[in-house]
């Protein structure tokens, strides 16, 4: 006869059945790890975040920081390129996902909406 779904094998149910099953499997205690205590120096530094995006027609990528939308200029030549944004605090790297080329590395200025490339406007002219 098959046991009802709320009971374990052997017809036992409830807390005692769970303890019986754990003992059968060789588990001595449900919470065998020590409890976390405050003040331990085991905290790892913030790894940051990784985000994928596509460069828009204007040659920029957008990202939110502290609830505010920021635009990063990369260049119109990269329009439609799939990129990877690696954000560690205020340091941001924009990497081409196909070639792995570092397209831009910058430090975010939270007071500005648009983070320009720093290059002069217009097409580059051969010398």
Q: In angstroms, what is the radius of gyration?
A: 27 Å
Distance between the termini: 89 Å
Mean pLDDT: 79
- Biggest β-sheet description: 4 strands, antiparallel
Element-by-element helix/strand order: HEEEEEEE
Q: Strand percentage, roughly?
A: 25-35%
Cα shape: elongated
Order of strands in the sheet with most strands = 1-4-5-6
What percent of the residues sit in helical stretches (DSSP H or I)? Answer: under 10%
Helix-strand category:
mainly beta
Specify the number of helices.
1
Task: Indicate the low-confidence ranges by residue numbers.
Answer: none
> What's the count of strands?
7
Characterization of this structure:
The protein is mostly beta strands and 127 residues long. It has a domain at 49-115. The chain has one helix at residues 14-25, and strands at 49-54, 60-65, 68-73, 82-88, 91-96, 102-107, 114-115. Strands 1-4-5-6 form a four-stranded antiparallel β-sheet, with no helix packed on it. It has a three-stranded mixed β-sheet with strand order 2-3-7, with no helix packed on it. A hairpin with a 5-residue loop joins strand 5 (91-96) and strand 6. The mean pLDDT is 79.
């Amino acid at each position: 006869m098959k046991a009802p779904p709320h009971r374990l094998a052997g017809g036992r149910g409830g807390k005692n059945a769970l303890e019986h099953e754990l003992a059968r499997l060789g588990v001595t205690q449900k919470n065998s790890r020590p409890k976390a205590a405050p003040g331990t120096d085991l905290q790892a530094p913030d790894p940051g975040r990784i985000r994928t995006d596509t460069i828009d027609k204007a040659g920029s990528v957008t990202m939110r920081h502290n609830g505010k939308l920021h635009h990063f200029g990369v260049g119109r030549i990269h329009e439609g390129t799939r990129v990877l944004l690696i954000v560690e605090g205020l340091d941001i790297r924009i990497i081409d996902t196909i070639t792995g080329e570092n397209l831009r590395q910058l430090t975010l200025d939270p007071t500005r909406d648009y983070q320009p490339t720093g290059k002069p406007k217009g097409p580059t002219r051969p010398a």
